[in-house]
Structure formats: C-alpha cells, structure tokens
Amino acid sequence: MILPPLVVVTVLLAVWQIYTTAAAVDPTVLPSPWRVVVQGWENRQDLWTATLPTLQETAAGFGMSFVAAWLVATLLDFSTWARRGLYPLLVASQTIPVVAVAPLLIIWFGFGLFPKMLVVTLCTFFPLTANLAAGFASADPEAMRLLRSLGAGRIRAFTMVRVPSAMPYFFAGLRVSVTYAVIGAVFAEYAGAENGLGIYMQAQKSAFRTDLVFASITVTAALSIALFASTYLLQRLVLPWERTARRKDHHS
C-alpha cells in the first residue's frame, strides 16, 4: 500500500532534480528538491518555531470541530425537527467560501487563536457531522427494538447500538476532516496572524526564498500525512474487533 506512492514520489522528485540541474533553473524561480532539503534543514529552527503555532491552531480548531460534530450529529439523530431544520443549513454552509469568511473572522475577533480555531472548524466540521449522522442512522433497527423491549431507555440504546454502528463512519469522516485541518490553520494565518507557517511562507515569498516556501509546504504536507496516518492507529485502538473480523474473513 505504501510502496506505490513512494515510487511515484521518488520518480517525480528525480525528474524535478534532473530538470533544475540540467537547465540551470534560477533557484528563486524553481529550487531543486535537494536545495529545498538543505535549506530547510539549515533553517530548521525557524521552521519549527513557525510550526508550533500552526500545530496549536490545528489541535484547538479540530478539537472544537470534534466536540461540535458529536453534539450536532447526536441532536440530529434524537430530533426529527432538528434533522429537518439543521441538516439543510449544514449543507448550505459548505457553499460559503472560507476564503471570504476568514478575513472577516480576523476583523471580528482579532489576530489571536480563536479566529484560527473557527477557520479550522469550518473546514473540518461538516465531514465529521455528516458521517456521524449517517453512522447513527445505519444502526440495526432490530437491535434497537430488542433493547427497547428489554427496558433499555433511548439513551442507553443509543450508546449501546447506534454509537458502535457509527464508528466506521466516524473514522471515515475523521480521515477526510483531518487532512483539511492543517491547511485550514495555514490559510487562517494567511488571512491574518502574527506567526505560524502561513506567515513564514508569506515572509519567505516576499524575500524570494522559494526554497524555504517549498520547505514550509513540505512541513505542512508532512503534518497532514502524519495526522491522517494516526487515524488508522486510533481506529485500531478504539475498534480492535474490526482487525479480528478482517483476519477471520481473510482465512475463511
């Protein structure tokens, strides 16, 4: 699974390196991959200093999105009126361009952490909520009726049947959302911030340090990939029976 994309990336980097070397391309226009690596390593302290605020914004914004998604999806599952009234609004919210909203959030709330959290939440909230709501709806109705017939209340039936049924859907939405989290934080910094990878990229672009812009992009991509991969580890920890079931299906 990992080998094919690694081969493709290696080939692309090799072609890039050969082209920039053979054509003697100006590094302020297109630096070679090797130059990006060397300059990124030499400026690793500045990159790390810029990365820390972005990580903080990503974690805080995604945490807010996580809590809000569970609350809203649960409300949608419990209330038919909420589902009819709120779900169309959630879908409509995805038509609002974040590029237009982000500067307004900076104007309203300043250059602190909160507006960056809101931008990350806007970028990640809908996939989580939609997948959770779909997961709750996929619960076995027979199991729900059985528990209710045994005297279980609606909340107990929800936690014992609907929540476990929603877990695969939740992790599918989590993987989609988490890939947007870091990008959302960087974009929020572009709209207005005092520090972070977005500000660092802007400063290096203005200084014609294209190599360091590419180094910043590489850091952003690495963070997104790391977060994406961590969702699989988390899923194994939370849903260990899925792995056992796959092994049984494979052997059978």
Strand content: under 5%
Question: Structural class of the helices, strands and pairings?
Answer: mainly alpha
Oligomer: single chain
Low-confidence stretches: none
Number of helices: 11
Extended strand count:
0
The rounded distance between the terminal residues' Cα atoms is 23 Å
How are the SSEs placed, and which strands pair?
Elements: H1 3-22, H2 33-42, H3 44-78, H4 80-93, H5 98-109, H6 113-137, H7 141-149, H8 154-191, H9 197-206, H10 210-238, H11 240-251
Structural overview:
It is a single chain. The protein is mainly alpha-helical and 252 residues long. The protein contains 11 helices and no strands. Helix 3 runs antiparallel to helix 8. The longest helix has 38 residues. The radius of gyration is 22 Å and the shape is elongated. The mean pLDDT is 87.
